[in-house]
Amino acid sequence: MKRAQENKIVDLYIHNLRDWTSDKHHIVDDAPFGGGQGMVMKPEPIFKAVEELKKKTPNAECSTPNVEGQKSKVILMSPAGQHLDQQMATELSHESHLIVICGHYEGVDHRVVEHLVDLEISIGDYVLTNGAIAAVVLVDAIVRLLPGVLGHEQSASDDSFSAGLLEAPQYTRPAELRGWKVPDVLLSGNHAEIAKWRKEQAEKRTRENRPDLLKGDRV
């Protein structure tokens, strides 16, 4: 993430919703209508913040298909959202401007979801203390896919989930540790055999650890 910013590959900004409140206490939450536990994030600061950020972003409101003219995509981190996966991260990495709203407390006023947000995203079936933690996961998953961020451009395409499978096991020196040896094929120098072994191991590992990822043609 640091390298991406230093190399001007991505610009990251953190904004405080309290900056868009109008009361003297800068309140961003209130009790839910209808009763219930906890507090709900108020809609006004969120609408004001997103609308101002869109205006400050060049071409943010354009709808032309080219990258320079893409409009801002507004994302809400929420347990009710679509599950984040590698395909979604890849698609979002092609967007020119993302505005990520971090849910908090018992959630946000649903009018934000209905009239402002383009996409709700969940990083898993569990609840966190606030959406900022989830937002960091989302941003990291996206930024590492941008050209020039990783040390080797092949790294991202070799990752788990990129081809619908978990990544094959990896080994490094020493070739033998406590009697446990690295598979001979990895030391053979035969790249075709190594590629074949890695594919087989990726399928085996996926079948054992994440069978839900396997499609019918791989079962």
H/I helix tally: 8
Summarize model confidence as the mean pLDDT. Answer: 89
Strand order of the largest sheet: 4-3-5
- Report the count of strand segments: 7
Radius of gyration: 22 Å
Shape: elongated
Share in β-strands: 5-15%
**N-C termini distance:** 37 Å
**Main sheet makeup:** 3 strands, parallel
- Ranges with pLDDT <50 over ≥5 residues? 59-68
Helical proportion, percent range: 25-40%
Decide which structural class fits the backbone. alpha/beta
Can you write the helix and strand succession as a string? Answer: HEEHEHEHEHHEEHH
Q: What's a quick, concise take on this entry?
A:
The chain has 219 residues and is of the alpha/beta class. It has eight helices and seven strands.
Mind explaining what this structure looks like?
With 219 residues, the chain is an alpha/beta fold. The protein is 33% helix and 13% strand. It has 8 helices and 7 strands; from the N terminus they run H-E-E-H-E-H-E-H-E-H-H-E-E-H-H. The chain has helices at 2-6, 43-56, 86-92, 110-115, 131-143, 154-158, 184-187, 191-209, and strands at residues 29-30, 40-41, 73-83, 98-102, 119-122, 176-177, 180-181. The strands form 3 sheets. The protein has a 3-stranded parallel beta sheet, with helices on both faces. Strands 1-2 form a two-stranded antiparallel ribbon. The chain has a two-stranded antiparallel sheet with strand order 6-7. It is elongated, with a radius of gyration of 22 Å. Residues 59-68 have low confidence and may be disordered.
